[in-house]
Amino acid sequence: MMNYLNKTIEQHYLKESLYEDILQRLSEMGKDLKNITREDIAGVDEFHVRGAAVSKELAESIDLNNKSVLDIGCGLGGPCRMLAERYNCTTSGIDLSKEYIRTAEKLSQLVKLESKTSFFQGDATALPFEDESFDVVWTQHVQMNVPNKQKFYSEINRVLKPNGFFLYYDILKNNDERVKYPMPWATSEDHSFLFKNNEMDDIVTKLGLTKVSSKDQTRAGIEFFEGMLSKIKEFGPPKIGLNVLMGETTKPKLLNLLEHFKNGSLILESGVYKK
Questions:
Q1: What are 9-68's pLDDT values in tens digits?
Q2: How many CB atoms neighbour CB 4 within 10 A?
Q3: Per-residue pLDDT tens for 180-216?
Q4: CA distance 185 to 13
Q5: Nearest to 19 by CA among 100, 73, 82
Q6: What would the pLDDT profile of 204-262 be if each residue is shown by its tens digit?
Q7: Looking at the DSSP assignment, which residues form a beta bridge with residue 168?
């Protein structure tokens, strides 16, 4: 069952020749492909609400300098590259999607950060790392695709060093209202496994982690989407944006998510736990 589900989820995110598409778009924007910076690809390499801005905010919530960091559900590797460049971190990213991992590796080479970033294709509930391997584990918008929450957070705890930090930024249920699909992470409810923040806290604290802080990010998410949608209305979709990953379905997915943030059935939250 799990294998079938993983294949379905990977298929949901699949976009063939993603790296080549990004290169083509950069080229059409008149960029010199020999001198691409992280900023040039920032619009596409962070597949979560508020993109690069929120990753920087998350990074500021603890002292990350020179730490070893694992990003679970790393997508195209944007946060891994940011942490490597700005905080001198050694970063590893893992994702279910082979195409995302291939693209992540290529993008790291493109911006000359391949020596400080490593990427692995794999399952978040069976991490291919030794116990106590990382100072920090972080995850952004991933658990919604994971049915076995206990296994997911147990694995995070297992690979974290003592006194290490778990950072999250997530979309969570706020009540029991039915969710309308498609969403950016799921075409239908068959591969969406949303739960509430108190359920997450219950699992994580029972594993022995202590909550340091949490922050409601919903309002900031609403403002981000409203700004993005008005720009799309005025100027059309950006050359380098989340539309590269979601294609034709970008607008209905974003509008559904925005509607749920506004009606209070879903919330955005970030936070920190310490082992």
A1: 666 555 678 889 889 989 998 999 999 999 899 887 877 888 888 999 999 999 999 999
A2: 8
A3: 999 989 888 988 999 999 999 999 999 999 999 999 9
A4: 8
A5: 100
A6: 999 999 999 999 999 999 998 898 888 877 777 766 766 656 666 777 888 899 999 99
A7: 139, 271
**Three-state secondary structure along the chain?**
CHHHHHHHHHHHHCCCCHHHHHHHHHHHCCCCCCCCCHHHHCCCCCCCCCHHHHHHHHHCCCCCCCCEEEEECCCCCHHHHHHHHHHCCEEEEEECCHHHHHHHHHHHHHCCCCCCEEEEECCCCCCCCCCCCEEEEEEECCHHHCCCHHHHHHHHHHHEEEEEEEEEEEEEECCCCCCCCCECCECCHHHCCCCEHHHHHHHHHHCCCEEEEEEECHHHHHHHHHHHHHHHHHHCCCCCCCHHHHHHHHHHHHHHHHHHHHCCCEEEEEEEEEC
